[in-house]
């Protein structure tokens, strides 16, 4: 395995942004150690790209002016294009799914959404229309958006979980998809893309929200699939925060705060710290399951972003408590988990939300043409 050991020194040599701490730098070093040029870059052993590691590398390249981080991120994006289905569109999850001898149709919404955001970062990192690679990245991103519109999008609002399987709206999958859709809207300054994302948030909330249990997964018949999941609240929460930041709707901010309060009241473990993967109210108490380090990293990032848009410290303090509860996991983390925690700690230290775009003027609806009427000659009397 070929590792880029120079990455380890980059974290210490470059000037750290305000609020950076030693834990974040160690996690960045652990992510750097997972770079493998022979495998394709930030890629797992089973042939799946580490989207969070790519996101982190692009962020470090922007902030530190260190081209090696950007180059490694872009190289991983190039490798990921090998998983793109040039016939039907969309990305396969990993190498074995893209094998021509395989009949897999497992092109899930989540990895497609996360790779769309990686492509947006690659497009911006390339410098815009003057850079050939940037033009290519935008072209692939446009094709991924087309795949979403043809296959994954529900015209009534929301996105299905994948190309195959049930067509019900799962909160987690929609959280990733709507977040990516908002990122694409911000990148293109297109209000129509933004408005569909907002429409999707409304529909998923209406179909999945229960005031007693939070966001729930239901089958096409309305029956519950599982107990309330932390990841459903977290991913939809992140999409709502981004929508409130970019679009300014009061409803999105109110819903994001509702989910944040639910995490603090029901999911946070008062003894062990961190957040349970499942939490259900039962006879005046809360029944919690075990905790997962990766899910807690995503939850901490959501709460840190919520603190940024609300200005309320309690959410950032809860995110910090979660990071302390998983201190041992942070020491041992590598690859994608290390990247997830590095992104969470960066969000706790300073806001990491994108700039608000100047939205294009929405085109007025065109008036449909008057129906054609055939002219008839008057009858002779």
Tell me, briefly, the overall form.
globular
User: How are the strands of the biggest sheet laid out side by side?
Assistant: 1-2
Q: Which bin fits the share of residues in helices?
A: 55-70%
| Class of secondary structure makeup | mainly alpha
Mean pLDDT: 88
Order of helices and strands: HHHHHHHHHEEHHEEHHHH
**Subunit arrangement of the protein:** single chain
How much strand? Answer: under 5%
Tags for this model:
two-stranded antiparallel sheet; single chain; mainly alpha; two-stranded antiparallel ribbon
Structural features, described:
It is a single chain. The protein is mostly helical and 381 residues long. It has helices spanning 6-13, 22-33, 51-64, 67-80, 95-98, 109-125, 132-152, 171-188, 191-208, 230-247, 250-267, 293-310, 313-325, 327-332, 335-349; strands at 209-210, 214-215, 279-282, 285-288. 56% of the residues lie in helices and 3% in strands. Helix 8 (171-188) packs antiparallel against helix 9 and helix 10 (230-247) runs parallel beside helix 12 (293-310). The longest helix has 21 residues, at 132-152. It starts with 5 loop residues before the first helix and ends in a 32-residue tail after the last helix.
Topology, pairings included?
Blueprint lengths: L5 H8 L8 H12 L17 H14 L2 H14 L14 H4 L10 H17 L6 H21 L18 H18 L2 H18 E2 L3 E2 L14 H18 L2 H18 L11 E4 L2 E4 L4 H18 L2 H13 L1 H6 L2 H15 L32
Antiparallel strand pairs: 1-2, 3-4
Quick structural overview:
With 381 residues, this protein is mainly alpha-helical.
